[in-house]
């Protein structure tokens, strides 16, 4: 078989069609060549059935029968082969005037080389992004793979892949119409072709678009990026970009100076996002857009996506904007969430449905190459976080965020694409995160190598300013004046806000880098004192079960370190990438294995997976931890359909444990409440049935319930409830509302004496102070659960009411401990009974506990409510309002005359 046929075979039947700008059906060529076959110039076997030969025959018969690009190509090949003008002839006379064998060999080589060059161009268009310089840090491959595609010319020896040699580098080649690298030139040397392809596809922009099945759209993108000189910026444009970078970066600096101890989730590392969004909006406005939807984004990542699309659709409908020429949407994503959250896929699939389309959305992905503490290599299976966008043929523009001009150009093209084709487009800003997940976080625990490089990284503002100063676009004085000008704007705005009191507090979530050794030594010191905190209690519970042959598996977002930097079950080598140690797997000679794994940024999928995992064996403790308790919202389907109803609906026992961080910490409506009311509302114990008490009442209750709901206030009780989950002779789902601030609360510690043999989980922890020693003198008995207990104890002491007010804790809320509550109420016959919670009245536990108290008390005594008033949001977004409401309900809890004269 000739080299030509080998090449044609390698390219496949589609190759020649894709090299032309329009499909040309082989059947049309065959229909035109009904006579004897004519050999393609240089074909060694004379008149085979080659696809290329048939097209050549059709051209010889009638040059107008093929696309004009092939007509030009065949004319050039014939001219070079015969050193004379091309002479297309009728088919019947071609055999009599075949070129000489040497001419055919020369022509064959020319054809093969031209086809090879066209294949090379296409290889860069398809796979050039895999070697683009996208990571500003220069340490990661944006596609998670250091592999270099074999068909990209990254070195001279790669020329052999195309049967080309170094001597061919300076030869001129005809450019196909499927590339614009030549500009107005129709031929280029191979050396120049490779250089221009490298410049377009392998620098700071990585383009994914060749999967799009529309030729016109592919040509549009090629023209926008391949045409020489398209990324030229005027001095005015560069100065404007610099000014926007100043505003983006100096605003972050201003916030850091004024609120140094507060979490900001700042832009540092992706400061270019602000100029990028401004460019999209400006460019869209130039093309007629009047309204851009940006909706407040909750921390339930990506949940906002369909909300934005629905609002955009409504705005378009009310404006009569059927084509989306006046209203558009922009969605900002995180890389881990974009890959991990199923709602992203669902939202993309709405994008072209007639009743849901918004005529194209610009998606901007802030790709800082890490999800909280989870390495992207552990967070997704796809090469890029943006691969989900390929399902709707959305072009994906990856860009190095430390190249502001590249970012601005890409965003401008993205806005044009959306306006031109009314389709989605993705801008992937490959950046980094200069600080931790927030400003109080320490990333060196888990990403030491990345953050060593980040600490040395020159900020993008300085880098770009130095570039413009070096090329005399701006002077150093002008740059400094721009900074001073914006700093004055911020200071003046800050001055105008003085009428509002702003509290400056240090958030309890604190994990400074030098503290890793401190944490480990601190645990050792605690054991010497024979006491444990929350993290150590969990460690001991897991370790003791492992010793007994019970496999323990803990998964969820950032569980290896723990959302609040308290766990540290995986230790990272500070010098060697991905070298880690899990100490808990080295506790005992014949222990069971311990698995702790950071999951992708998904709740629905991951919780379902862990539920299935727990089904496989009853001799395993399987736990899923939400990053924050309210994150279970996006896994509600799994909770409703499988966990709460598992035994009744599916006749399946399952011992899965849900760890849901919960507590009103003044951090706003997100991340505060794990929504205990939802779990309690789905509990199946009867609030109106007075129970029949017996010796086995506790176990019988647990066996009859559909799940167990607890809120432990001590590390020892957390230790015991985890062990009880395995020691019970049956399996029930366990919902644990875990603490946040109590993780480091000095009072939230337990003694070894509360965890040794003979101790167990306490469903209720009764008052054990002064009030318990003289119960007849107690005027008020406060029942509560969880963190609020420590607030109550502190306030009771402040008001010197230790002997008049008793405080009892419900540790197990469901099934309700009727027997122990009855005992506590009877112990204080003259005391008012109060239920105190930090949650709003229509949330939390009150609606669940109130009818059960009434049942056990036979409605002879009221149980008064103390807590926050009903509300729609689980917590206020204003910290001052949070503190005011806290003080208000604590005052009420200890106002011994608060309920005088009231009836129930």
Automatic annotation (TrEMBL):
Q: Extract the Gene3D superfamilies matched here.
A: 3.40.50.12470, 3.40.50.970, Multifunctional 2-oxoglutarate metabolism enzyme, C-terminal domain, TPP helical domain
- Cross-referenced InterPro entries, in alphabetical order? 2-oxogl_dehyd_N, 2oxoglutarate_DH_E1, DH_E1, KGD_C_sf, ODO-1/KGD_C, THDP-binding, Transketolase-like_Pyr-bd
- Cellular component per GO? mitochondrion; oxoglutarate dehydrogenase complex
Gene Ontology MF: a single term: thiamine pyrophosphate binding
Q: Does the keyword Oxidoreductase apply?
A: yes
UniProt region (Disordered), positions on chain: 25-46, 81-107
Q: Which GO terms describe its biological process?
A: tricarboxylic acid cycle
Cite the entry's keywords alphabetically. Oxidoreductase, Thiamine pyrophosphate, Transit peptide
Say if the entry is tagged with keyword Zinc: no
Mark out the compositionally biased spans (Polar residues).
25-36
Q: What is its EC number?
A: 1.2.4.2
**Similarity field:** Belongs to the alpha-ketoglutarate dehydrogenase family.
Q: What is this protein called?
A: oxoglutarate dehydrogenase (succinyl-transferring)
User: What organism does the record attribute this protein to?
Assistant: Myotis myotis (Greater mouse-eared bat)
């Amino acid at each position: 078989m000739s080299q030509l046929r080998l090449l044609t075979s390698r390219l496949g039947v589609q190759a020649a069609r894709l090299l032309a700008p329009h499909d040309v059906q082989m059947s049309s060529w065959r229909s035109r060549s009904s006579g004897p076959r004519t050999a393609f110039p240089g074909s060694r076997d004379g008149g085979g059935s080659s696809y290329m030969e048939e097209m050549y025959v059709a051209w010889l018969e009638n040059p107008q029968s093929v696309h004009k690009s092939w007509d030009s190509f065949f004319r050039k090949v014939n001219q070079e082969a015969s050193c004379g003008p091309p002479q297309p002839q009728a088919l019947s006379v071609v055999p009599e005037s075949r070129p000489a064998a040497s001419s055919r060999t020369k022509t064959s080589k020319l054809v093969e080389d031209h086809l090879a060059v066209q294949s090379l161009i296409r290889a860069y268009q398809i796979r050039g992004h895999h070697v683009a310089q996208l990571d500003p840090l220069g340490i990661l491959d944006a596609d998670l793979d250091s592999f270099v595609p074999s068909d990209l010319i990254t070195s001279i020896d790669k020329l052999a892949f195309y049967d080309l040699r170094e001597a061919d580098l300076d030869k001129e080649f005809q450019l196909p119409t499927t590339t614009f690298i030549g500009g107005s030139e129709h031929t280029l040397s191979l050396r120049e072709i490779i250089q221009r392809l490298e410049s377009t596809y392998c620098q700071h922009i990585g383009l994914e678009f060749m999967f799009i099945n529309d030729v016109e759209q592919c040509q549009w993108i090629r023209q926008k990026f391949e045409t020489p000189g398209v990324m030229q910026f005027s001095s005015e444009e560069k100065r404007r970009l610099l000014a926007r970078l100043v505003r983006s970066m100096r605003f972050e600096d201003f916030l850091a100076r004024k609120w140094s101890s507060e979490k900001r989730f700042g832009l540092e590392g992706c400061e270019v996002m602000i100029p990028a969004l401004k460019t999209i909006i400006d460019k869209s406005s130039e093309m007629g857009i009047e309204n851009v939807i940006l909706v407040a984004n909750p921390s339930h990542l990506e949940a906002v996506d369909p909300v934005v699309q629905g609002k955009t659709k409504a705005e378009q409908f009310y404006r009569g904007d059927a084509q989306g020429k006046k209203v558009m949407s922009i969605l900002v994503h995180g890389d881990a969430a974009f890959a991990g959250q199923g709602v992203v896929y669902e939202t993309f699939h709405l994008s072209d449905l007639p009743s849901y389309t918004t005529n194209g959305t610009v998606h901007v992905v802030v790709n800082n190459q890490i999800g909280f503490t989870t390495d992207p290599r552990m967070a997704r299976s796809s090469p890029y976080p943006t691969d989900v966008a390929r399902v709707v043929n959305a072009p994906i523009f990856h860009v190095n965020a430390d190249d502001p001009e590249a970012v601005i150009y890409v965003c401008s093209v993205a806005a044009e694409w959306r306006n031109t084709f009314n389709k989605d487009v993705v801008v992937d800003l490959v950046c980094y995160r200069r600080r931790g997940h927030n400003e109080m976080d320490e990333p060196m625990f888990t990403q030491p190598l990345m953050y060593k490089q980040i600490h040395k990284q020159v900020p993008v503002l300085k880098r770009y300013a130095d570039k413009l100063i070096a090329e005399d676009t701006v002077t150093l004085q002008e740059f400094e004046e721009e900074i001073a000008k914006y700093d004055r704007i911020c200071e003046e705005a800050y001055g105008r806000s003085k009428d509002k009191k702003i509290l400056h507090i240090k958030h309890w979530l604190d994990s400074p880098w030098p503290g890793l050794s401190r944490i480990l030594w601190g645990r050792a010191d605690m054991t010497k004192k024979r006491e444990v905190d929350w993290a150590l209690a969990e460690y001991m519970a897991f370790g003791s079960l492992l010793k007994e042959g019970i496999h323990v598996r803990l998964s969820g977002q950032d569980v290896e370190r723990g959302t609040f930097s308290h766990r540290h079950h995986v230790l990272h080598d500070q010098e060697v990438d991905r070298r880690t140690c899990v100490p808990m797997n080295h506790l005992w000679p014949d222990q069971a294995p311990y698995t702790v794994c950071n999951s992708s940024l998904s709740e629905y999928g991951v919780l379902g997976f862990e539920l299935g995992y727990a089904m496989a064996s009853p001799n395993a403790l399987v736990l899923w931890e939400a990053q924050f308790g309210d994150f279970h919202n996006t896994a509600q389907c799994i909770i409703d359909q499988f966990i709460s109803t598992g035994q009744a609906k599916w006749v399946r026992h399952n011992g899965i444990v849900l760890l849901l961080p919960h507590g009103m910490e003044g951090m706003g409506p997100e991340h505060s409440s794990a929504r205990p009311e939802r779990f309690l509302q789905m509990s199946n114990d009867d609030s109106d049935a007075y129970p029949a008490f017996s010796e086995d009442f506790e176990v019988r209750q647990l066996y009859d319930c559909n799940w167990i709901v607890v809120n432990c206030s001590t590390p020892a009780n957390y230790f015991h409830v985890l062990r009880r989950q395995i020691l019970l002779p049956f399996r029930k789902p366990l919902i644990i509302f875990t603490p946040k601030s109590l993780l480091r609360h000095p009072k939230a510690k337990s003694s070894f004496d509360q965890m040794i043999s003979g101790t167990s989980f306490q469903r209720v922890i009764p008052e054990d102070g002064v009030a318990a020693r003289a119960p007849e003198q107690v005027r008020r008995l406060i029942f509560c659960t969880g963190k609020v207990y420590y607030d109550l104890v502190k306030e009771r002491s402040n008001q010197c009411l230790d002997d008049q007010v008793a405080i009892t804790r419900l540790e197990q809320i469901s099934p309700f401990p009727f027997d122990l509550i009855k005992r506590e109420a009877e112990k204080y016959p003259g005391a008012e009974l109060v239920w105190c919670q930090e949650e709003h009245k229509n949330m939390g536990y009150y609606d669940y506990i109130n009818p059960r108290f009434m049942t056990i008390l036979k409605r002879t005594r009221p149980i008064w409510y103390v807590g926050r008033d009903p509300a729609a949001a689980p917590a206020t977004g204003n910290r001052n309002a949070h503190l005011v409401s806290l003080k208000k309900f604590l005052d009420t809890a200890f106002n011994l005359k608060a309920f005088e004269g009231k009836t129930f």
